[in-house]
Hints:
Layout: H1 14-31, H2 41-52, E1 62-65, H3 71-78, E2 84-88, H4 91-101, E3 109-112, E4 126-132, H5 134-139, H6 145-159, E5 160-170, H7 175-182, E6 186-192, E7 196-199, E8 202-205, E9 208-214
Parallel strand pairs: 1-2, 1-4, 2-3, 4-5
Antiparallel strand pairs: 5-9, 6-9, 7-8
Keywords: Cytoplasm, Methyltransferase, S-adenosyl-L-methionine, Transferase
Protein name: Protein-lysine N-methyltransferase PYW07_012710
Family: Belongs to the class I-like SAM-binding methyltransferase superfamily. EFM4 family.
Amino acid sequence: MEDSELDPSELGTQDYWQKAYTKEIENFEEHGDPGDVWFGEDSANRVIEWLCNCGADRDTAVVDIGCGNGYTLSELAREGFTNLLGVDYCQEAITLAEKVSQAEFPHIQYKVFDITQDSVRELGKFGIVHDKGTYDAIGLNPEDPKACREKYIEQVADMLADKGLFIITSCNWTEDELIKHFGEKMKLKRVIPTPQFKFGGKVGSMVSSVVFTTK
């Protein structure tokens, strides 16, 4: 990968997310507020709508990498998906997600898992692998983000079942960059349309959502 790396940020550190989710747990327990949806609900719902209409069986094994408060999984459960797993490297995020979903969707499973460190063999294979913002956070890691990104890509490829789908949403990498990063291990299937803006004569998107499949 010859791309320049992102400028390091506290958003790429586990300490930041542990503190953030600790506050969100307190807010949920005191006020019932499940917390923010990364990139906003509109961005998440576009991907959820696409997944619901892509022809995948509702019992397809789904994993959400960096699940946060579990919003995406709860919405997929609402649409009838039954085999759902959320993983995050922060125990605090897993605790929040479990608290948010347990009353309405107790069948959603959650697990503490660091995709750049732990073995994906313990998770198994998935027909759908979803990521909204986790690859971004990995790219913001102050400590060797390139190696972490390369490990992430390798791990995701190993998690995909035959003809499986990997859906990634990013606000830091363009569609072309994502296709370049993941294209060696996976095959481009679809770019999910996102709202565009025009500035200085150039057209761009606030976020990029790209779907890959196994080669």
